[in-house]
Design a protein that fits this description.
With 751 residues, the chain is mostly helical. The protein has a domain of 148 residues: Lysozyme (Orthogonal Bundle), CATH 1.10.530.10. It is built from 40 helices and two strands. The longest helix has 22 residues.
């Protein structure tokens, strides 16, 4: 049960961060408007449309905008276009609204006073978001092939010099020019966009469209030249493969010469390894004496390796030794042979090859990698003595290489695990006397203290632990040291000064007004948040965040905005930015309530009571996983506040009591929190309440956690964290436990 006594007005503000729950006394229409906003934010567009049709919500222009946006996203072009054009007509020609007013939801201002206004923002959505309406409408009109109207809308948008949507409008105008058979105009547009995007990932996209325009204009040579630049300069881009296909059709033949070599890279990055190997093989047959021929042969072997064709990979390696004995890929091919043995499970052969590689090519950039792989193989086989020896060898032979510090760290901790505290202490001291300790200095201090404890020297251990606390200050290792000393390293914060009282004093010192273009972006950001378009709002507010430290009134405005619309993650990111510019202790302390908010408090409290978990642990987990961003999505596909993978979500959902007609959405806070807590509780039960093991399973999966525990039988839980194979999982556990301790400090005074 999380009982927090509210003793500060800006702390009280944070209690409204309750997920999707709104105060019952709000009018039904405003509750409906908040629900629609949440559904749009969570990409539940069909449900949002249904709610808009049934109950409405917000003003007439708000409802029209939200309905039009949902239809636009669902590609219902014709009805969306009609609504958008109606809004554009209502918004007038200028789209310049009046001054800002308080946020829609009831809130208490961090300035110290209460703002109980129930007025909605006076900026009309069809005026302030005119550029968005124009872009959405143009897209819909292109969808129904009303090209003249679409062009008219895009040109109106391009007249708005401060709009962030101008590049998107220009790109869309280029596409429209191509569809209308006006390649010369498209060439001008995409030529300019390509030049302006030098060094940015979107350049290949603009170049591809430029090639299409040249081709439509009958300029085959120019089109081929642009396509060759994409293949050569951007082989890993999404446009590279279609560019290669277009080049082949344009020239009516396959690429030849060096372009064929580059084509191999395009296929390789597209994971079409068989085609990559074939391209490099043809290159060698055509130009066997080319300076790139030996590299092509090695790359063909590597492509076969990536595709699991180890026999073919070995054959090409042997062929390289015979045909190109002076190749700059000679040593790499020997290393690849060992990789093939390792991948096929031929452990003895792989070990022999890696050792021979280190002996024959100690100068190679791959020699330390060979030792690293030997250590990892030994770990997988449960031969920890050998793993320790290989890590130690790597750290001593290749001390300047990137993984040398980590190798020395693991060698020291394996010595401690097997009970040799003196060797462990010696290695950890070596780590601390290195150039920078490789980022392991704090941990080395703590584990040196643990070696003294292992020797039975409690006094020296306690002195060293005290050193850890004073040198590290706050964080994971200081918390571990305090726990060992059975004392809190983090004295509880008192109420302190209100941030908004401090801001009031700063307004006098920093009275400057926000530049006009940023003032407009602030207004747009507010309106986009009101409508549920959070990604677009963040784009508008990005530069406002970067400049906010010079404008205390804007900081106050943003915190009110984020708290009123229940966006603790955005408030956290703003506070994190301010920390770097406002180093004063009083401000740093006041910002802690925003850096460690009681986000989605009622939802967290309910789940904590049901599961009997520490609510601070739930908040720390949520903060680590997503920084309280309900729309967060990882490269692997994990989604939402608790970063649940879809497959894991389906498995958890099968055990939950889901009401009829309800829909589980990983972007919806109540479901993400419930699933995350359910999954964490499941892991805690499986590992008998041991939080380090449970968090390892939460992050890396129970299979990996069980494999590590089987290898490290009877290990101390804190030492287990250090010897986990995955760097990401080690960092994850440290961050969660450090954040949990920080929450106790920040909020302990209030409850």
């Amino acid at each position: 049960m999380l009982a927090v006594r509210r003793i500060r007005l800006d702390v009280l503000l944070l209690t409204v961060l309750t997920g999707l729950l709104l105060p019952a006394e709000l009018p039904a229409r405003r509750q409906s408007g908040a629900s629609v906003r949440a559904l749009i934010q969570q990409e539940s567009l069909t449900r949002a449309l249904d709610l808009l049709d049934r109950e409405g919500g917000g003003s007439d222009s708000d409802r029209l905008f939200q309905k039009a946006y949902c239809l636009y996203r669902l590609e219902e072009w014709s009805p969306a276009a009609g609504l958008l054009q109606e809004l554009i007509s209502n918004g007038g020609a200028t789209g310049m609204p009046g001054p800002l007013h308080p946020v829609e939801a009831e809130s208490i201002s961090p300035a110290g006073g209460s703002d109980h206004s129930t007025e909605t923002d006076s900026d009309d959505v069809d005026a302030i978001l005119r550029d968005y309406l124009l872009l959405f409408a143009a897209t819909c009109l292109i969808g129904i092939e009303d090209f003249p109207s679409a062009e008219r809308h895009l040109r109106l948008l391009l007249e708005q010099s401060d709009s962030l949507l101008r590049p998107a409008a220009e790109e869309l105008l280029g596409q429209l020019s191509l569809r209308r058979g006006r390649p010369e105009e498209a060439i001008r547009i995409y030529g300019r966009l390509s030049a302006e995007s030098s060094g940015r990932p979107e350049r290949s996209r603009f170049q591809y469209q430029l090639a299409r325009a040249h081709r439509q204009a009958g300029r085959t040579a120019e089109a081929a030249g642009v396509l060759k630049r994409i293949i050569t300069d951007h082989p890993s881009s999404r446009e590279a493969l279609p560019a290669l296909d277009d080049y082949r059709s344009l020239e009516d033949e396959s690429p030849a010469g060096e372009l064929l070599y580059r084509a191999g890279w395009v296929y390789f990055y597209s994971r079409q390894y068989d085609r990559a190997a074939d391209a490099w093989d043809r290159f060698i047959k055509i130009q066997p004496r080319h300076e790139l021929a030996s590299r092509a042969l090695f790359l063909g072997a590597r492509a076969h390796f990536e595709d699991g064709r180890y026999k073919l990979a070995r054959e090409l390696c042997r062929r390289l030794w015979t045909d190109y004995p002076r190749s700059d890929r000679f040593t790499s091919s020997h290393f690849l042979m060992a990789r093939c043995d390792e991948a096929e499970g031929l452990t003895e052969e792989a070990v022999e090859r890696y050792h021979r590689f280190v002996e024959m090519y100690p100068w190679s950039q791959l020699a330390d990698d060979a030792l690293w792989r030997l250590a990892r193989m030994a770990e997988r086989e449960g031969d920890l003595d050998t793993a320790e020896r290989e890590y130690w060898t790597l750290s001593q032979r290749y001390g300047s290489r990137k993984d040398a510090s980590l190798a020395l760290w693991r060698a020291g901790l394996y010595a401690l695990y097997r009970g040799d505290s003196r060797t462990a202490r010696s290695r950890l001291h070596r780590l601390m006397t290195g150039r920078d300790g490789g980022g392991y200095t704090d941990g080395a201090l703590y584990w040196i203290a643990r070696t003294y404890a292992a020797d039975g020297d409690r006094h020296r251990a306690a002195v060293q632990m005290d050193t850890v606390i004073h040198r590290v200050g706050e964080g994971y290792y200081a918390d571990l040291a305090g726990r060992w000393l059975k004392s809190s390293t983090q004295s509880q914060m008192d109420g302190g000064e209100q941030l908004t009282d401090l801001l009031a004093g700063m307004k006098t010192a920093l009275p400057g007004d926000l530049p006009d273009h940023l003032h407009l972006r602030l207004r747009k950001g507010r309106q986009l948040i009101r409508m549920g378009l959070l990604p677009q709002a963040r784009q508008e507010l990005r530069e406002v965040h970067q400049r906010a430290h010079d404008h205390p009134a804007v900081v106050e405005e943003l915190f009110n905005l984020y708290q009123g619309y229940q966006l603790p993650g955005d408030a956290l990111r703003l506070a994190n930015s301010l920390r770097r510019h406002w180093p004063q202790d009083r401000i740093q302390q006041a910002l802690q309530y925003y850096l460690y908010p009681l986000a989605y408090e009622r939802l967290v409290q309910a789940e904590a009571e049901n599961s009997q978990l520490d609510p601070f642990l739930i908040l720390a987990l949520m903060r680590t996983e997503s920084l309280f961003d309900p729309l967060a999505e990882s490269p692997a596909g994990a989604r939402g506040l608790m970063q649940i993978m879809p497959a894991t979500g389906r498995e958890i959902a099968s055990r939950l009591d889901v009401p009829d007609g309800d829909e589980i959405n990983l972007l919806e806070p109540r479901w993400s929190i419930r699933m995350g807590v359910t999954y964490l509780d499941q892991q805690l039960q499986a590992y008998h309440g041991q939080i380090q093991f449970a968090l390892a399973a939460y992050n890396a999966g129970p299979g990996n956690a069980n494999r590590w525990l089987e290898r490290l039988d009877g290990i101390d839980p804190d030492l287990f964290v250090e010897l986990i194979d995955f760097r990401e999982t080690r960092q994850f556990i440290r961050k969660v436990l450090a954040a949990q301790a920080r929450y106790r400090k920040v909020w302990g005074h209030a409850g």
